[in-house]
């Protein structure tokens, strides 16, 4: 795992999450050397805050930029304080497949795990 910023990694990404995200990025026709996965926090959800993810062509000014298993991850400065120290994983099981954020900063999560409170 290498970091492309001088800061510590805001988020750790598991190999399975990176592999899945890279597959999806390639499927969208995006250049994985420049584009990346943006992880952000927004108001909403039953617990107050929720995670958001999308693919971006390139980072924005002020982003924390890290690389994990070949995947570039972008986190904006306002979201970083909520997700710092988190692990992003990809789970594929009986209840469905998807990305999951394990966040040590969350004091509580809603029952579905989609929103949290700090």
UniProtKB/TrEMBL annotation:
GO biological process, one term: iron-sulfur cluster assembly
Gene3D superfamilies per record: HesB-like domain (2.60.300.12)
GO MF term set: 2 iron, 2 sulfur cluster binding; 4 iron, 4 sulfur cluster binding; iron ion binding
Origin: domain of life: Archaea
Residues of the Core domain: 13-114
PANTHER family (alphabetical): IRON-SULFUR CLUSTER ASSEMBLY 2 HOMOLOG, MITOCHONDRIAL
UniProt cross-references to NCBIfam families, sorted A to Z: iron-sulfur cluster assembly accessory protein (TIGR00049)
Protein name: Iron-sulfur cluster assembly accessory protein
């Amino acid at each position: 795992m290498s970091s492309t910023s001088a800061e510590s990694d805001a988020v750790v990404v598991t190999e399975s999450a990176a592999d899945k995200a890279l597959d999806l990025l390639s499927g969208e026709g995006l250049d994985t050397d420049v584009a990346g996965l943006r992880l952000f926090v927004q108001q909403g959800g039953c617990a107050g805050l929720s995670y958001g993810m999308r693919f971006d062509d390139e980072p924005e000014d002020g982003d924390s930029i890290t690389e994990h298993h070949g995947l570039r991850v972008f986190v904006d400065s306002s979201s970083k304080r909520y997700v710092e120290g988190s692990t992003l994983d990809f789970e594929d099981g009986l209840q469905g497949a998807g990305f999951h954020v394990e966040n040590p900063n969350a004091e509580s999560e809603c029952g579905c795990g989609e929103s949290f409170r700090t």
